[in-house]
Amino acid sequence: MTPFSSPTRTLGDLSATVAAKLIATAADVALIVDAEGVICDMAFGSDSLKDLGYERWVGQLWIQTVTKESRPKIEALLREADSVTAPRWRQVNHPSEAGADLPLAYCAVKVDDVSRADSPGHSVVFGRDLRAMASMQQSLVDAQQASLHEHWRLRDAQSRYRHLFQGSSEAVLIIDSVTQKVQEANPAAIQLFADVARKLVGVSFPVGLDESGSEAVQTMLASLRASGKADDLRVSLTGGNGEVNISGSMFRQEVGSLLVLRLSPATPDGASISKSGGHSMLSKLIQCSPDCVVVTDIDGSIVSANDSFIDLVQVPNEKQVRGESLGRWLGRTGVEMNVLISTLRQRGSVRLFPTTMRSDQGTLSDVEISATMVTEGEQSFLGFTIRDVSQRLANDARAAKELPRSVGQLSELVGRVPMKDIVGETTDLIEQLCIEAALELTRDNRAAAAEMLGLSRQSLYVKLRRYGLSDPVAESEK
């Protein structure tokens, strides 16, 4: 600090009012602190601080108006006020009701007259509002954090790109669109052109192709530069090293445009279908399958269905069934769908589940369902294969009309026929079998058969007529 050269001559007549005005104007906030550190008076040079209501500091210890970590700085300011050296500015923080602390920079100067013993020992404290600077510092920190985050994001993206680029089994070349020089080449590309170019990067492309292939690639590169797209090519490598398929694309970056060429060995005619082609063919076969194929979510809502299912339920198109529950058309009692979903969740698959399907027109069809559950990522899906067996069951029923149902045949009726009907049919079947066995054992002696069965003759005759076992002669005799 450099003081005035002659303050007595220039400021000697300065009144207390003018001095107070100068002090208040020189700082955002000015405090008058006594020897005990109590704030005796204060003035504001900034209206923004005045509006915050800090007048209540008057009468409080200065050290009690700041945060805990700032109290040692207040003690140092009060000590340094007596020093003959230049006062030191220190940043302290005041707690604020608005939430964030109020940052102020203070310096203290003692203004008592040391020649007088009764001097009160007051100090003038000048304060500067640092909120604008703190806001700028915070903005700088936020910008640095955002820049660091973006830097790591770009590094992660570059790492993923390098991993995919280097690990690809397909040869990939990145070429400058103007000079046609190879900027980058992955290991598969270096291996493909190992016989013709030891150092592929920096070489002008095309290289390693026969004459007709080079001309075709030049035309392809020109088309990419002009429109950004071009048809795939099939060209031959030099030295009889086979043929490759070339596809290309273009992307722009700050320094210009780059071309990306992908080269893969050409599949000979008549070769087996590729993996992706096999998946496509499988999808076509499922769509055209005579059996119904339905894919639902874990709750049974239809995600996709083939044409056979659309025909079975008699709706116009797949959009009419998508999002609907499969249980809308499945089963008679409405519980079959819940049984299937529960079984799939527990076991993962169901085979030959007998039930019925009803169309929107009310037509019932006997079906057999096989189903499985698959998981893709965090989602699970259910796949149902539904086969219409109405014609087969009708033929089986006609072939076995006179034969009694086995236990297995009766159990197949569960879900398609009410239990009351199954029990009734089973009871009738057992009665008929018992009567036929008794007549056979008694050689058609009905009185003996009735006694053997524990029935009266009249009850036996009623059951014979019921089951069609009585003949006209017996009726006339009766």
Set out the fold topology:
Layout lengths: L6 H5 L4 H11 L2 E5 L5 E6 L2 H4 L20 H10 L9 E5 L7 E9 L12 E7 L1 H37 L3 E6 L5 E4 L1 H6 L18 H17 L5 E4 L6 E11 L2 E10 L9 H13 L4 E6 L4 E4 L1 H7 L22 H12 L1 E10 L5 E13 L2 E10 L1 H10 L7 H6 L6 H23 L4 H8 L3 H10 L5 H6 L1
Antiparallel strand pairs: 1-2, 1-5, 3-4, 4-5, 6-7, 6-10, 8-9, 9-10, 11-12, 11-15, 13-14, 14-15
Précis, in short:
This protein is of the alpha+beta class and 478 residues long.
Task: Using the coordinates shown, work out and report the CATH topology of the largest domain.
Answer: Beta-Lactamase
Quick one: how many beta strands?
A: 15
**Proportion of residues in helical segments:** 25-40%
Beta-strand percentage? 15-25%
Classify the secondary structure makeup into a structural class.
Answer: alpha+beta
Stretches where pLDDT is under 50 for at least 5 consecutive residues are 270-275, 398-404, 473-478
Average pLDDT confidence is: 80
Any idea what the shape is?
elongated
Total of DSSP H or I helical runs spanning 4+ residues = 16
CATH superfamily of the largest domain: PAS domain
- CATH class of the largest domain, please? Alpha Beta
What would you call the quaternary organization? Answer: single chain
Radius of gyration: 49 Å
How would you describe the overall organization of this protein?
By secondary structure, this protein is an alpha+beta fold. It is 39% helix and 23% strand. The strands form three sheets. A five-stranded antiparallel sheet has the order 2-1-5-4-3, with helices on both faces. Strand 9 (243-253) and strand 10 (256-265) form a beta hairpin. Helix 13 crosses helix 14. It starts with 6 loop residues before the first helix and ends with a helix. The model is unreliable at 270-275, 398-404 and 473-478 (pLDDT under 50).
